[in-house]
Each structure stands twice: as C-alpha cells, then as structure tokens.
C-alpha cells in the first residue's frame, strides 16, 4: 500500500513531506483500525468467554436443578415406599387380627353348637355296673356278724349304651393293662365310667339311685375323681314301684312279665370267684351278663317311659318325651294360673300338655 502511494504521488508530483504525512496519517488510521479490531477481538473473546461461562453456568445450574429434582423424587419415592410398607404391615396386622377374631368366633360358635346340641338333644346313658363282694371273716355259716373285713369291694365291670346309638359296650378289669400286676385295681375302669357320667345329661339304671350311681360315686371319690357334671337320673325300679304293683320290681321279673326277655343266668357266686381268680371264661361270662342287663334295661325303660309323668325333657324340639312330634290334641289343659292344651303321643301313647308359652310337660 505504502509503495503504491509513493509510486502514486511520484507520478502526480506531490512533495515528499506531504506524502509522508499522508502515509503517517494512513499508518495512524491503520493502527487505530488495528486497535479497534483488537479491541473488538478482545470484546468478542470476552463475550465468547462470558457466553461459554453462561452456558457452563446454565449447564451446571440445570444439572444441579435436575439432580435436586431427582433427589427429591428419590426421597419422595423412598418415603412413599416406607409409607406403603407401613400401611402394608398395618393391613397385614389387621388381617391377622381379624383372622384371630374370626377363629375365636369360630371356636366360640363350635362351643355354643356343642352346648346347644347338648341342651337340644340331651345325652341319655343306660348303664349297669358289677362289683366284687367284700371279703370278710365270720365264725359260722348262717346269719353271722362279720368279725373282720379282709378286703374292701371294688368295681369289676360296667356295660353301657347311649340311647340314640345302636351298640352296647362293656368294660371289664382285664381290658386294662394294669390288670396283670394288680387284679383288684379299678382306677382305669372307674375313670372310663366317670367320663361317661360326665358326658351324660340323663343316666338310666335299674336300682341306679340306690346302687349303681352311689357305688360308682364311692369308687370315683376313692380314686380321687371330682364329681362328674350334673345329670338327671331315671331309676326304672323306682318307676316300676311308683306306677305299678308287680309281684317283684327286679329287672329280670319286669323283663319276663312285660315280655321283653330275661337276664342271663350267672351260675351264682362262682362266677364272681372265677373273676377273682382271673379265670378268662368267667370274665367273658361276666361281660356277656353285664351286656344283657343293659339291653334288657333299655327295653324295660322304653316300655315304662310313656307312663312316667316326671320324665326329664330331653329334646326341646320334640313335643313328646319319646322325641316324637306326632301327637293328637286332646282338649284344654288348665291349672289355677295357666292355660294350655292336652295331647297324646301317637307313637308311644304318652300324655302331656303344653302351655301357652310353648313349654311342654309330659
Ligand atoms: Zn311319645
């Protein structure tokens, strides 16, 4: 450029000083322009740097913001998870509690059902026991006073039947493992009888009030057993005596007179002596004899039942004591204070009456 201007001014004839000044001016302008460019460059660089800084800041800020947001979300999710866990555990506990309550209710319902069924259909036990005689010393044979008692009596066997079941059962001392060691220990036998008494609502026995039940109680208490749960008793001997005038009220006689069968022949006291010796045949015979007593007892009881006017209520759903609802109304029934209806059972012939509140008596 300078060469060009020198060449140009040499051509146009201007003087060297003017040209120098012009060049100087141009040079100064050039420097200014260069400075301006540098300044602009610096500014541009600064702006660029600022922009980069700004972008960096923005990036960092965004990253921080995002990280914070992610952290918040994580914390929230963790809290929600803990909350869900807690609610799940609480719900689980509630479910277990409800299950426990349901289970308790189920058990109570079961107990109630047992109680109701026991009250509705009372358990009626027919029973007969056989005992060993006392062993004593006497001076003579006829009408003797006992000088000394050698051995106390014990229970030999019992037979039983639940009225609503078909089978009749018998238990004798040799049925128990202890018999081999001690032929007179009746603890296990008596304990089994106690369980039956405890289960029964009504116990039927011939001469039971005077003999079977009291004798059994004597062995219960002697063997350390508590009283069984309360039950009513029906003594067929007392029923026969109360309502009839038979020549004899023995079970064998009643069975024969009513055409129901007889007791088995025991063959006398030899049978008891045979059992005392541990003779198997004697025990077998004792068991059969005992079973037949209960079978005959049931027949006699069923025959006498219609005549009994103090028979315990055994089925609250049945009008008659025999369990039947097949009855015929036979006029009004009245006491001084209450009114009702009289009926006769078509099944067993028993008479009874109901009161207006629905409670029956027969
Ligand atoms: Zn009846």
Enumerate the strands of the largest sheet in spatial order, edge to edge or round the barrel.
5-4-1-6-7
Which molecules other than protein and nucleic acid are bound? zinc ion
Beta-sheet strand percentage?
A: 15-25%
Q: What is the averaged pLDDT score?
A: 87
Cα separation of the termini: 150 Å
C-alpha-based Rg, rounded: 57 Å
Q: Show unreliable segments.
A: none
Q: How many E-type strands? A: 11
How many discrete domains?
A: 3
**Tertiary shape:** rod-shaped
CATH class of the largest domain: Alpha Beta
CATH architectural group of the largest domain: 2-Layer Sandwich
- Helix share of residues? 40-55%
What is the CATH T-level topology of the largest domain? Nucleotidyltransferase, domain 5
Structural class: alpha+beta
* Helix-strand sequence: HHEEEEEHEHEHHHHEEEE
Structure overview:
With 362 residues, this protein is an alpha+beta fold. The protein has three domains: 115 residues; 185 residues, 2-Layer Sandwich (Nucleotidyltransferase, domain 5), CATH 3.30.420.10; 45 residues, no CATH class. 52% of the residues lie in helices and 16% in strands. It has eight helices and eleven strands. The chain has a five-stranded mixed β-sheet, with helices on both faces. It has a four-stranded antiparallel β-sheet with strand order 8-9-10-11, with no helix packed on it. Strands 2-3 form a two-stranded antiparallel ribbon. Strand 8 and strand 9 form a beta hairpin. Helix 6 crosses helix 8 and helix 7 packs across helix 8. The chain is rod-shaped and about 195 Å long. It starts with a helix and ends with a strand. The mean pLDDT is 87. The protein binds zinc ion. Zinc ion (ZN) binds next to loops.
């Amino acid at each position: 450029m300078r060469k060009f201007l020198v060449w140009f001014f040499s051509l146009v004839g201007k003087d060297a000083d003017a040209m120098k000044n012009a060049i100087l001016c141009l040079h100064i302008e050039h420097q200014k322009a260069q400075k301006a460019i540098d300044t602009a460059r610096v500014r541009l660089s600064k702006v660029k740097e600022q922009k980069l800084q700004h972008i960096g800041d923005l990036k960092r800020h965004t990253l921080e913001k995002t990280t914070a947001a992610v952290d918040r979300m994580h914390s929230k999710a963790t809290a929600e998870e803990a909350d869900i866990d807690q609610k799940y555990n609480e719900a689980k506990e509630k479910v277990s509690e409800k299950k426990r309550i349901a289970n308790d209710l189920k058990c109570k319902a079961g107990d109630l059902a047992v109680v109701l069924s026991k009250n509705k259909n009372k358990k009626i036990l027919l029973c007969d026991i056989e005992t060993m005689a006392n062993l004593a010393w006497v001076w003579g044979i006829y009408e003797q006073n006992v000088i000394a008692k050698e051995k106390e009596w014990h229970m030999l066997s019992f037979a039983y039947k639940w009225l609503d079941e078909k089978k009749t059962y018998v238990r004798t001392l040799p049925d128990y493992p202890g018999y081999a060691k001690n032929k007179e220990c009746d603890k296990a036998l008596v304990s089994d009888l106690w369980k039956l008494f405890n289960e029964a609502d009504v116990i039927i026995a011939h001469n039971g009030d005077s003999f079977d039940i009291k004798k059994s109680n004597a062995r219960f208490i002697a063997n350390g057993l508590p009283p069984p749960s309360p039950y009513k008793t029906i003594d067929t001997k007392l029923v026969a005596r109360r309502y009839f005038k038979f020549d004899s009220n023995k079970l064998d006689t009643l069975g024969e007179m009513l055409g129901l069968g007889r007791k088995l022949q025991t063959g006398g006291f030899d049978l008891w002596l045979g059992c005392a010796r541990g003779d198997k045949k004697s025990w077998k015979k004792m068991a059969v004899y005992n079973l037949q007593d209960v079978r005959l007892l049931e027949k006699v009881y069923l025959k006498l039942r219609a005549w009994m006017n103090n028979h315990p209520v055994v089925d609250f759903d049945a009008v008659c004591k025999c369990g039947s609802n097949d009855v015929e109304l036979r006029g009004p029934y009245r006491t001084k204070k209450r009114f009702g209806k009289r009926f006769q059972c078509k099944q067993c012939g028993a008479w009874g009456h109901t009161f207006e509140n629905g409670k029956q008596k027969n």
